[in-house]
Amino acid sequence: KLAGESTYFLPFNRGTRDGGAGNDQPENGYGTEYLWQEILEPEALLKILARYMHLHVQHEEDDLGRIKKKESLIFPRYHQWNV
Predict the structure, then answer these.
(1) pTM for the whole structure
(2) pLDDT (tens digit, 9 = 90+) per residue, 22-35?
(3) Given phi > 0 = left and psi -120 to 50 = alpha, else beta, which region is 17?
(4) Are 62 and 70 in contact (CB under 8 A)?
């Protein structure tokens, strides 16, 4: 959900060989090519949609007794891919 300053994004990076954040830059190609070579392949993407994505729904009551629904879409991180 895009919500201005409240928007946050959890990265889908592989991490570096030495355990750092981000991606290693390969000798040839792009540092993010794993995304379309591994993740956005039709079979892989369908697997993510069917098995790993989760819509978390919370119902909370405010001070006036009104029920508010809060939804969060949970998408796996790259390191959870082979778990």
Answers:
(1) 0.52
(2) 788 888 888 778 88
(3) alpha
(4) no
Burial class, 76, CB count within 10 angstroms (exposed 0-12 / middle 13-18 / buried 19+):
middle
pLDDT in tens, 46-78: 988 888 888 999 999 999 999 999 998 887 777
Domain ranges of the chain: 4-80
DSSP string across 5-31? GG--------B-TTS-SSB---SSS-T
Tokens of 49: 């949609």
Asked if 70 contacts 57 with a C-beta cutoff of 8 angstroms, the reply is yes
Strands 54-61 and 67-74: antiparallel
